[in-house]
Structure formats: C-alpha cells, structure tokens
Design a protein that fits this description.
Number of helices: 9
Radius of gyration: 19 Å
Number of strands: 0
Largest sheet: none
C-alpha cells in the first residue's frame, strides 16, 4: 500500500469521525496533519509541534484550591489522560484522598505522595506548591480538564495512526 493511500485513509477516517460528531475539529486537524506528514507535504515532525501545554498544571492547581474542582475534573479525565506521568500520579492521588473523605491540601497531598515512594521531583513540596502557584483561580477547572481530555484523545489518535501506518508499511 502506498503512502498516499495510507494518508488518504487517515484523512477520510478523521473527516468521517468529525462529521459524525465523535471527535472535535482539533482532532480532525491532527489527522490531516498526520496525513500530510506521511505524504511529505509537510515535515512529519512539524505536523505536531506545540502539543505541550501548561493546562495540566491548571487542572491540578484548581483541584488543590477547590474540592468541587476535584469532582468536576474526575468526571472528565483520569490520571492516564495526562501527557506527563507525574501529573497523572498527582491527579490520581488527589482523587484518592477526596474519595477517602480526607482533605486535599498541600500537606496531605505531599504526605500521600511520599507514602507512595515516588521520586522527590514528584513528591516534593516545591513541585506541589508550584502546581498551585501557577493558577490565579479555580473557576475554569472544567475547561482545563476538557482541554487535557482533548489532548489525550489527540495523542491516542496519533498513536493509533502511527500503528496503522507501521502495519501498512510492514505488510
């Protein structure tokens, strides 16, 4: 199967998913970028530049500031939705504390993270405090969580498309 055929399949699938309302426009754009990268229309590595976002810190900071944000965020995302594993660990730990009926604050969070025998860069007070200091308000927790979820979906879609591409090349 030629690279043009693979790219066309990826493009058609993403457009169908968008038209059916199953994925947002941004996911469709990633599918198109992937297809263009495969065909060599644009450099493959530049097709996905700029995926990093500080919004992950905003979700965690919101959850520390407001326990309602824990409920809101945990209804939308899980720890696996975070690109960087340490944020997912912190997220899951906060939800865990909340579900146990314990307060979720800097002290209890750090204590629980230390119990899990995590590296100091995750369990340190500086890391946890930095998460909270990056956020002016917790009002937008739902929006932040939705962005994290969307980025997670994009990464999963890219991974799936890469697997499809590799399968096509290998026969």
């Amino acid at each position: 199967m030629s690279t043009s055929t693979i790219a066309l399949i990826i493009l058609v699938v993403t457009i169908i998913l968008f038209a059916s309302g199953k994925v947002p426009l941004s996911v469709t754009a990633v599918g198109a970028a992937l297809a263009m990268g495969i065909c060599g229309v644009i450099p493959f590595t530049s097709a996905f530049a700029g995926f990093a976002s500080d919004v992950t810190m905003m979700v965690i900071g919101s959850m520390i500031m407001n326990k309602d944000a824990i409920v809101t965020a945990s209804e939308i995302i899980t720890g696996e939705d975070f690109y960087q594993q340490q944020y997912g660990i912190v997220f899951d730990t906060m939800v865990e504390l909340f579900n146990e009926g314990k307060p979720v604050d800097l002290i209890t969070l750090q204590d629980r993270l230390m119990e899990k025998d995590l590296p100091p860069e995750v369990s340190s007070m500086e890391f946890v405090a930095e998460l909270m200091s990056s956020l002016p308000t917790s009002v937008n927790a739902k929006t932040y969580a939705e962005i994290v979820k969307e980025k997670s979906m994009l990464r999963k879609m890219i991974k799936t498309m890469e697997e499809i591409t590799n399968t096509c090349y290998l026969g």
